[in-house]
Amino acid sequence: MFMKRLTWFCDAGRRILSGAIWVAISTAAFGQLPPARPTVVGNLELVASISGDQPAGIAISKSGRIFISFPRHDGDVQFTLAALRNNRPVAYPTAELNRADVRRPADTLFSVQTFQVDESDHLWMLDTGTFQFGKPPVPGAPKLLEVDLASDKIMRTVQLPAEALVANSALKDFRLDFNRGRDGVAFITDSAPNAEALIVLDLATRRTVRRLVGSPTVSAHPGRTAIVGYEPLLVSGDGNHQEGPTPWLVGLNALELSADNETVCFSAFTGRRLYAVNADLLADFATDNGKVSASVRNLGDIGMAGHFVLDAKEQLYFMDMEQNAIYRRESGGRIALVVVDPRLIWPDTMAIGPDQYLYVTTSQHDRRAEFHDGTELRRQPYGVYRVFIGSDPRRALRPKTRAGKE
What we know:
single chain; mainly beta; Neuraminidase; globular
């Protein structure tokens, strides 16, 4: 009996000691946790509430005019390009231009994704040329348009030749470099699944080349599933070609051109990594694609960023859909948080205004039905917000020898 009691006492002592050690370890571990980040960082201001179609792109003129794009994510839209007037979107430059017409693919707008304003206060837009996201582009419809904001007149239309595209091309973003070629070149991202490429387009000759095709730097990396709105971002199965929910993966999407026009930075959307490549190599049509791919530099991890914007101080701004946040990568490589706010529900596209504010659209893209077993969770209105950054925009500048108005 004595031995049984002694055994029980020893076992109980071990359990108590074990519990004390676990409590000590768990308490110590809890004490090691970093302090909780505030739910809101930065002063995010509402600029406009938008009801209707899902917004995406944003651009701001030198005088402060705000433009918003409405890509054909769901098919038909009221208009794909708008100017904000009294905080309401109005078809721009005309309602007629916004009526897509397959008989006049070069003269009407189909689906404007992104745009930007150059130093001459001309608005440039990228028309993906599609009637619905994921559908093949209409022949002759993918193009760049240049509009003079002083007169609201179209100055130039540059159609992308058929050889620049693939059957499932999904044009996303672009940057202009007026220092190369006779009239400049455009760098355009194409996130076509399994055929991602960085397109170089000569604006004068319309000669093109697809760069980085097959490179892992532009592919949709399999790996960690995106967590957006506290839920894994999974595409619902369709019962035919797809049996169940699969992780949402998108390749090459965002890009930016350095202030000296020497470097193009880019990222695969779900790749969460920033890369850089020499612009001279990209734009030299005689350079082999293998050499271009081999020259890509890895600049480190970033968040799930769908868009970049560069300010006059050479600081790169990028959003993070998983964090409802926008970050800034400084010229030395240091990354700083600019703003985090629960209202940033899928921050889509950014632009810096002449007032030194960073403007951003929120598209609620993660709340679309295909991510929630067919249940539509987007709630209107959508928001356009801004946060003060104290820096001017960096705009594409035309050399004086090529622009008589400069």
